[in-house]
What does this fold into?
Amino acid sequence: MARNLPQVGIACNKAVYESYLAEIDLDRLRQFADFHWKEFDEETSWDSAPETSDQVKSEFIEFTKGLDALIVCHGSPRVDEFVFDVSQRLSLVGELEGDRFAQRIDVEAALVKNIRAVDTTHGSSYPVAEWALGMILIGLRNAGVHFRQMIAGEEWGTSDQRESLQEFAHNEELTGKTVGLIGAGYIGRRLIEFLKPFDVDLLVHDPYVPFELASSLGFTLTSLDLVLSEPDVVVCLAPLTPRTRGMLGRDEIYRIRSGGVFVNVSRGAIVDSTALIERLEGGDLTACLDVFDPEPVPTASRIRQLPNVFLSPHIAGTSPRSRTRFFEEMVSELERHFSGHETLHNLTARTLANRRGD
It folds into this structure.
C-alpha cells in the first residue's frame, strides 16, 4: 500500500533552488514527504513585502492549495491570510532566509490559523560566530596594525620595536578575559559555545532573552551600560531593528573601557560611525568590524586609515556552507513537525516584538 506522504512545496527563484537545496537534503526530505518546487521571481527586499500581481498571486495560491507545508525564500510572493484561507491543509510555513527581518510571511495570520511558522535564517549564524571569535583574537593581539606595517614594506618586529613600541605592548590573550555580548540570539549562543574553552566571564545584554538561558549557558544578564563599560572585549551581535538602529551612539561608544576591543559582526547602522571613528582616532580602543555604515566602506572614509582598526567587507555569514544549511535545518524542522514533535525555530510573538523593536 502506498504511503500517504505529506506534501511539501517550496516557492523561490531558480538561484535559491540551485544553490541552497543540496541533493543530500532533498533525498532526506523525500524519505518522508513528496516534494514540489515552483519557480517565482518576485523582487526581494529586506525591508518591505514583495509586491505581487494578481496573476502571480493566483498562481501562488494554486500552488499552495494541496500542500501540508510551504517553504519560501527569495523570489516567493508573500504568504498572507488569503493563502491560508485557500490552503486548508497547511500546518507549517517556513522561511529559509530572511523572514525575521523581511516580509515574506504574515506570521500573525499564521498564528491565528494555528499554522506553525518557522525560520532557518540562523543557518548563517555558524560562520558569523566563527568570524566573531576570529575578530576577538585579532583585536586582542592588535593584529591589524602589525599586518598594515608588514605589508607596507617597513622593517617591523625588531627587538627594539618589541620592547619600546606601544603597538607590541597591546598583545593580549583571550583566556580569562571578560567578554560582553550585545545580543544573545543564535549567533550569540553559538559564540558562547566557542568561548567556553577560554574560561571567559560573560556579560550579556539582550532584553528578549529568557532569564533561564543565562543560568543554563553560564552568563550574566546585565544592562547595556555595564556590558559596554566592564568587559575587555565588547561584541555587537544585535539585529538591526527600529529599536537598535543608532543604539550605540557617542555616549555608548565612549563607555567602552580604555584599551578595550570592540567587534561588530551584526549591522553597521546600529553604531554611530562618526562617533566610532572619533573614539578610534584617540588611539585607546581597537575595533574589528565586519560591518559598517554605509556599506561598502567608502574609499575615502577615515576608518580605512586607522591603524587600530581591522576591517572585512561583510563576509561573516556568506560562506557557501551556510546557504545549504538553511535548507538542511528546514528539512530537520519538517521531519520533527510531521513526526509529531515540536519544532525548534519558531516565529512567535516574541520574535515579532524583536523584529519591530517593541
Notes: The chain is about 40% helix and 15% strand. The domain at 7-119+320-356 is CATH 3.40.50.720 (Rossmann fold). The two ends are 52 Å apart (CA to CA).
